């Protein structure tokens, strides 16, 4: 057996490949993952390795631009409680799917998942300047039929944002992927050019290249 082959076997015997869910983050990464693998006793989160005891779950909801603190356990009309702050509904998002514009990343969140003032939590436990947070909507329409009229849509169509959409074309962009040659780049503030749709990682994709599963009839 050659020395190269032996070293390869030893390396992978000591490596634990454990890709965690996107809702997990790391308090203190030990270093970059090599070939998507980490040493035994560590887990792979995003592109980093992390000691198992340093792994924590991102909150289910975060607020981009808090209105103010919660008073007596309630918030004003049109606002919801997120942690210990009041937040406008439009600013509530899932940090496990939110991404950060490349030049707005300010580093990892603190051990308790908090970020400095003026920044918000995003996927992988990164803090991002508020204006750089890209929030994925929960539903997107692959091919809109037309605009919503009177807050409703015709039979067998559903309201998605401000458009009407056939049920079969409604999907969750946080799980949708894009055919390799149909990627047209990152979305701008969550929006994509005409003829394209949003997919996982805030990537815009030509409509015919969007790949997703649906339970809609």
From TrEMBL:
It comes from the Eukaryota. Keywords: Signal. Residues 21-50, 59-88, 94-130, 137-166, 172-207 form the CC domain. Residues 1-21 form the signal peptide. Transmembrane segments: none annotated. It holds the Pfam family CC. This is CC domain-containing protein.
